[in-house]
Amino acid sequence: MKKVRTEDAVGQVLCHDITQIIRGVTKGPVFRKGHIIQPEDIPVLLSVGKEQIYIWENNENMLHENDAAAILRDICLGSHMHGSEPKEGKIELIADCDGLLTVNTAGLKRVNSLGEMMIACRHGGFTVHAGDHLAGTRIIPLVIEKEKMQRAREAAGKEPLLQVVPFEKRTFGVVTTGSEVFHGRIKDTFTDVIEGKLKEFGATMIAHDILDDDPQAITAAITAMLDKGVDMVFCTGGMSVDPDDQTPLVIKNTGARIVTYGAPVLPGAMFLVAYMADGRPVIGLPGCVMYAKRTVFDLALPSLIAGVPLTQEQIAAWGEGGYCLNCPVCTFPQCSFGR
After folding, report:
1. CA–CA distance, 46 with 333 (Å, rounded to integer)
2. Pick from 5, 43, 137, 267: CA 20 to 30 A from residue 184's CA?
């Protein structure tokens, strides 16, 4: 790449897009990379402030911004997404289906720490829809060393930095516990909330039991639902630390592996995540899910529907952003909650 006076550039090959910005009227390229500059182009180039321009010089050790941006695209490009055409060294990634966006955060940080390049993406762990823009990649200079782009590949690792895991049609069961509900002293309003949230993801409840505070009966009910073939089980009631609240122990007695009992999220601290040996989740829901607009349940649901296991590390990371501000008008997920 060589910089020359615009008046001396006739016949040369332009090595970058030339953009014209007129506020409220237009923003776009007047000439594209690869354009051979003609005499009539000179006044146009001068009118957009280009007294000097860069023309292409072959250098086997360097890459043009568009070619380098394509490498960043490939580093990011996981399943169920596609990339846009390069434009001024920028490529965007777009979702092909509804699903859960996952991000290799460590790899992303390593690449962005190299300098002269950038990848900006949405937060992982949240729902995306077909057609949503997921990320943008860009090379900062007009050309960059091939060796540096190889370092970017190595920093990212072998797997793509981004994935969209499609949502699947799930079935679930609900085990409602508590003598007050079992004996009809109060109405069960919790199950309707669970059904409503799961319905947004196309999931169907195929089993529901209301039980007294009988640990053996509750364990048996969970096991029976799993034997029936439900994809996941949600347990309500008995999730606090009172002596007679035994739901965490009951879930453990099913043979499930407890990932966490407790989450750094408000509302939702008394959240329990467990998995059976075959990978099906058994979830203990705190009482706040019944009455709060958004809770830890909303952060967990996309992963549960996509079939991506929740990890202790992931749940611990919810602490930063895990404090819901209970805004008068809720805009979740377009807010800071869980991010």
Report:
1. 46
2. 267
Give the pLDDT confidence score for residue 326 in this predicted structure: 94
Per the listing, tokens 């199950």 go with: 191
| Residue labelled with tokens 């782009």 | 149
Alpha carbons 225 and 209: distance in angstroms, whole number: 9
CB of 319 within 8 A of CB of 262?
Answer: no
Q: How far apart are CA 73 and CA 95, in angstroms?
A: 13
SS3 207: strand
**134-173 pLDDT, tens per residue?**
999 999 887 899 999 999 999 999 999 999 999 999 999 9
User: What is the DSSP annotation of 18-82?
Assistant: EEEEETTTEEEEEE-TTPBP-TTHHHHHHHTT-SEEEE----TTEEEHHHHHHHHHHHH--TTEE
Beta-sheet pairing, 281-285 with 99-103? unpaired
Going from the N-terminus, what domains does the chain have, and what CATH number goes with each? 2-55 (3.90.105.10), 62-166 (3.90.1170.30), 171-317 (3.40.980.10)
Per-residue pLDDT reduced to its tens digit, 8-59: 888 887 877 788 776 766 677 788 776 788 999 888 888 888 888 877 776 7
Give residue 144's identity as a one-letter amino acid code.
I
What integer pLDDT is reported at residue 34 of this predicted model?
A: 67
Can you give the C-alpha Rg of the chain in angstroms? 27
Two tokens at 115?
A: 């300098």
